[in-house]
Amino acid sequence: MKKICYLLVFILVSACSNFGDMNTDPNNVVETHPQLLLTNVCWSAFSENSTSPLYAAKYLVQSDGESSEQFYKWTRGSFSYYSSLKNVNKMQEEAESIDAKGYVALAHFFRAWYFYKLTLTFGDIPYSEALKGESEGVYAPAYDAQKDVFNGILAELQTADELLQAEKDALEGDIIFDGNLMSWRKTINAFRLKVLLTLSKRAGDAGTDIKQRFASIATASPLMTSAADNAQLVYIDQEGNRYPQFNSSSFGSGMYMDSTFIALLAEKKDPRLFTFCTQTKNAQDKGLAVDDFTAYDGGDPAAPYATVNLKAVAGKISKPHARFYSSATNEPQILMGYGEQELILAEAMVRGWITGDAATHYNEAIKASFKFYETYVPAYAGYLTEAAALNYIGSEKVALAAAPDAEQKIKRIVEQKYIASFFQGMWTPFFEHLRTGYPAFRRLQGVEVPKRWMYPLAEYNNNATHVQEALQSQFGGQEKITDATWWLK
């Protein structure tokens, strides 16, 4: 009898066990290796590409409707980056569960990357209590002061570099550097310099140590040594892996080049212009040479869109180059590149944060940019050779030595960063303008360039107490897009 009972218990336990296995949803995985999450995290961060910032930063104009970005009429921003951060946090949790420090390091880097973008967009944001709904039941996180967010970003980047320095195992699932830890360290340290230079207006604040921290990284941490170190995503002609603007309908009849951007490149006789846009229809009809800078023009970003449309109909405005929507692979998307790093170092030298020859780094950045377009836009490679780059660098309107003072040197440095950011920098050129005033953004008289976006309406509905506290501490209780946040004061 006992044997029969034991047998029945065994059958029941086995059945329960099997029943549990059968009811486990294979599409809702409870645990996964962080390498599977890393691939998606990299793709999401690196493949971000939008035309919206190109209107705000005076690269493009619209002729068939009013662009809120072009005319600085936006209102509320989005907290969508928090959705991306959920995947980053999940990668960190899975990595910590198996003590995979390399993945933990990259989680800190991507957290820093997204929180950097969020705080520049809004000011104070949820940071220290963010993304703790599932783990700690915090569904209405407090807002951290922007200064504290920046300190947290810099601390996470330092942690990321230290973890990678101690790690030996290559990373699987890495679609950027194929697991190379040193390449990631260079990227992280270059980004640390970018964050610190972003705070140049606060460099004189007591206790910030911005200059000293910058100098320590620049002199003692591994940095990029050539364009081969670029943190970039190379696209392939395969479903789900193509250039984000491929076959995009946004390049329809209403999108044209901004005249102020065209004028900047034409003034400098910059051959990268040929890779960015087409000649005007009238210039094409006349058979003007590709390198005839009079063959290119744009629309006035301060004029009503109907006025721009009349100029377009008359065949007098250039379109963005067809390669941006006709090529499945086009050019890689650079998250953090050697050229930008070199311009950051050059500006820091002009500001006196570190010692060195600013012109050397400035020239390296320009040569790297020319090489990038020579490589990835082969139809125009003949205009972008090293000899062409050297000739350009030596011209009066480009040479750093030809700038009469430190401020004009900074202007030239920022303009080079701006030129190289066409369809690359997302909102970086806009924030660089807010930081430095360069390049000048043409706009309607009396219109102020916004300094931020208003908080999402959902925050007022779901996190009212904390968003009101953030508004009170920053702006006296109200908010406008022209309100300056801590980093700009």
Overview features:
489 residues; mainly alpha; two-stranded antiparallel ribbon; two-stranded antiparallel sheet; 21 helices; 3% strand; disordered N terminus
Task: Please characterize this protein's 3D structure.
The chain has helices spanning 2-22, 34-46, 52-56, 81-97, 101-122, 133-136, 146-166, 181-198, 210-220, 259-267, 273-276, 281-286, 305-313, 323-326, 338-351, 358-376, 386-393, 406-419, 428-436, 457-462, 464-475, and strands at residues 60-62, 125-126, 143-144, 231-233, 255-257, 333-336. Helix 16 runs antiparallel to helix 17. It has a two-stranded antiparallel sheet. It has a two-stranded antiparallel ribbon with strand order 2-3. The chain starts with a helix and ends in a 14-residue tail after the last helix. It is mainly alpha-helical. Residues 1-24 have low confidence and may be disordered. The chain is 50% helix and 3% strand.
